[in-house]
Amino acid sequence: MRSLKNISHLGVKELVSLSRDPMLLLFIMLAFTVFVYTAASATPQTLYKTPIAVIDNDRSQLSNQLINGFLMPYFLPPEAVSASEADQLMDEGRYTFILDIPEGLQRDLLNGEQPKVQLIVDATRMSQAFTGNGYIQSIINREVSTFTQADTQLPIDIAVRAQFNPELNSGWFSAIMELINQITMLSIILTGAALIKEREHGTVEHLMVMPVTPFQIMVSKVWAMALVVLVASAFSLTVIIKQALAIPTSGSLTLFLFGTALHLFATTSIGIFLGTYARSMPQFGLLFLLIIMPMQILSGGMTPFDSMPTAVQAVMYFAPTSHFTEFGQSILFRGAGINIVWPQLLALAGIGALFFLVSWRHFRERLADMA
Amino acid sequence: MTREADFAVSVNKLNYHYGKQLALNSVSLDVPRGKLCGLIGPDGVGKSTLLSLISGARALQSRRLLVLNEDLGESRQRKRLYRRVAYMPQGLGKNLYPTLSVKENLSFFAQLFGINGQQREQQVCRLLKATRLWEFKDRPSAKLSGGMKQKLGLCCALIHEPELLILDEPTTGVDPLSRRQFWQLIDDIRQQHPDMSILVATAYMDEAKRFDWLATMNEGKVLASGSPTELLKKTATSSLEQAFMTLLGNESAQIFEPSRQPSKNDSVAIEAQELTMRFGDFTAVDNANFRIQKGEIFGFLGSNGCGKTTTMKMLTGLLTPSSGKAWLFNEPINSRAMETRKRVGYMTQSFSLYGELTVYQNLKLHARLFDIPEEYVENRIKEVADQFDLQRLFKQLPKQLPVGERQRLSLAVAMIHQPEILILDEPTSGVDPAARDNFWHILLKLSREHGVTIFISTHFMNEAERCDRISLMHAGKVLVTDTPQSIIKSCNRSTLEDAFVDYLETASEQPSDTEKPAPELQKQASLKLSHGFSVRRLLSISHRETLELLRDPVRLVMALVGSVILMFVLGYGINMDVDEIDFAVLDRDQSSTSRDYILSLSGSRYFNEQPPLNSYAEVDARLQTGEISLAIEIPANFARNIQRGDNVTVGAWVDGAMPMRAETAQGYIQGMHMDWLQKQQQQLSAPVPQRATINIESRYRYNPDIKSLPAMVPAVIPLLLMLFPSILTSLSVVREKELGSITNFYVTPTRKSEFFIGKQLPYVVLAMVNFLILVGQALFIFKVDLTGSFLTFTLATFFYVLCATALGLIMSAFLNSQIAALFGTALATILPASQFSGMITPVTSLEGLAKVIGEVYPTTYYMIVSRGVFSKALSFNELHVMLVGLSIAAIIFIAVGISLVKKQER
Q: Chain B contacts of A194, Cβ < 8 Å?
């Protein structure tokens, strides 16, 4: 009872402190509105306005038809280039693809030969290079069969449908990922920096002579900062993602926020941990970078989790972001309920508890040095 | 020469506001030249504000203010004053750099004023010897005692031989011996430089006697000014203390102080036996013994850094003694005992309350944490607020309050829970005489009427005289413990101060000030102070920043090793390949043909087959759990319909939750389907003519084997070289603002551009080192080839890290809190650099704001250079456009940053 009162008083103190920093509040607001919106609208599709050029040595009806097969929004209108300048343009990074159509393509095809076209791909362009290659192949196949008006020899078709995001709009995915990134980033910075600040301004010393325990100090920071982030995420999800971006999320919002709270339990504990390790704010800034980058990039939010090396996967199982990313996708896109996401919730709670305990023990030991 | 030439400072109806609050109300004042002038008045009447305005550290809000005949409102005239005025702000060592040594601190100030080479060496040496700091010249200033810090501060102020020296409470918190030495030093300087005008604010009335000229202030107004004798005459009083009280309108009543009646059955409240604290080799407290009775006021005196604070920390449980024991209320001290904490009130030496909470909120928080029943909280707050005159400050933030008022708040907080023991560490430092007097009334009342035990340290002798007993401490040892009268008697002195100085001098075997060599501050061959932009000054700022960086090796190592670790993690971890796709099949045909179709999928390295599906419901359920990412449905009569030539459609559902993965999976399936069809056709050996097709031959340029590492490394380097340098610089200015040394920039001739670029330079060098390490790692550990021009790459990197460091500094220059600067920099770098700069998606394919950001963000162009040089064998000829772009960006970033730096506090 006493303990709960102390925790609530100290937590309210954190909230008041935060409210005195108008620039910080502005940044928090930007992070959950403009940043989420911008990230979501940055790439509407995986393959979007891909720059492509064509070396058309055939100048036939077929080659023309091939060129016209590359449609917006997947491809920018193909530009005609000459073979001699192709290399330089590739070097400059102007195009991701250059399609080289040889002379006599149409003639050879009609003669029943199997002519070749060459596709030059800029492999440094990562995702576009890989996804686009498959697209271009099917576009060419489609155009060729229209041109020859040949039916498929066998009447077998395949109908591929995408579940949960029928148009494979990658903005949906980016929006949620950016929200998750902001949640993680802000919660770690707020708690860690609040702790360092107490130390740099000598207020830790004061806390230690009052009848409050390290546990209470820590829990108060955890709940206060988690609450701020939770409110910001609820706002971002309902107003920015659902309204402004009109992304039809399925699944229960309450359940998502519950999972967010568990995730915040883990990340704020990480913040405290970093705060006890760093001796000054500049050190904290660097530690923060070291932790946040892998947590964001390797959580499965940027690249498929299953494709990472197993060693990396094993380490990342201890990062709350990996489970939270999976959890967020399940609920918001696949409309999963608690019967499906309970393993992630359990993992988040477990990781949270583990980090909290470790941080708490460490904090208790280090507190004496901090004064 | 006009009449004004006679004045060092001429103030005419000066006003100053903090928000709505009026700090200076139409102040008019003429401070004579060549004199030692004092400014006295209670806390919070605007003394510090006035001094910071005169020094030029704070920007004027109204009217003109003439200093040495130059108008501070005119920026050109103000610039001339930087060299003629010196300012030492309030607070022990406030404008020093804690990690720099004594000599480095002083040299830095010399460089700011363009004093270099031989001349600087001489000047520094002379000043340090005169102030007896020479033997401590290599000690970091953080480890100096308070008195020494102030002496060093004075040296720093004197280095450029100012005509006007402004000192804001220079001896507050300094012990009597050091105080004497400090004033001796001032006297010596005045002898050497009779022309120098000195303006001092002080809370010590005995110091006021020294002044040639005095001004008293109250509530933002000047009450009276003139020589001490004139003031005495004016107020018809015999002592300055009384004169001061009269001017304030207070009747100084002779106070009746009941002396303590010791009784035999008094219990012991605090006891220490052989209490010792060692930090490494250094013994801070050496065998301290004392017993303090309940209700006693026990004074603790000693020079700065003699172990008083350490002893108090041991008593409060903040520090665990190395040996020896201590008891509170007859119980051994246990830092975890919550009940004991409620019975003790502790006030730390430096202000340690929450600057972002209002005075009222601070009181309320502490009342609640000390478990005062909710219904009494308001009452109790009102009580202490009345006692310490805090009512009118309730809504203000402590960080805006002057030191004296903050101390009063701290005292109120220490007493709010009516503790039985009060441990107060220099509670009255910086508090004005009237408030101190009032405070002692409260203490006496608590002790005599409520039996509260008080353990207090102080530098004021008139306070020590009011204690029941005092201990003198020196270098960790308790020299004597007795009543003040007995101590005076035993030394055969008339005042406690003399007795105290005797004890200290005997203990430190230091001869008294008489034989001290007078500081040789003889006029230099006039200093050549360069006007305009000075590369030397810029370099001296870089030098200092570098020293601070080097003194924090943990940060240095973290910056370099951190980026290497991240390169490993990101280089190996990011993999754009899509494989390991789990799929399951709903096979409604169960024929050999359908099994053959399935085999074509499960045989691929991209797919992993999972147990088969039985119904549509299961398709939905298993996709939803994420157990499978692909479901295939083979319709009934699949084989028979193929035989007959009827239309057949195979169904496929892909999990679209991660669109990039889904797109790739779709491509795989379609490819697989086509392959199977062709094979099928050949097997059926149907008499269909060879179908006309075009073969597509994909040539992956620059990374023919499509390996992840050679693709990732050139993209990760730009990311890391944006994040680390910007995070490193993001705190560098805002930290000086939070900790106080920014004043040195305000009052010295340092230009904004010198300050900005000077700070930036060390981090640029660090970033270039970082660049070389990362490239080395790429070449020798990752074995990624660098095919293009390394020189071009290095040049581009230089411009790029200029941008990155400037970006952090921009955040630092315009924000006021470290947290905001850190978060702001993280926001401004992580997302734009990793997603909008072409690392994964080319900028041309972006939309909306992201595209706009991507087009102007320097990482976009540096990424092109990095990939060009690593993978595309490009050199200067192809990349010079990027170099031009990056250099323009660097210039813009730096220009914006410089314009955001403020040269005066507002």
A: 819
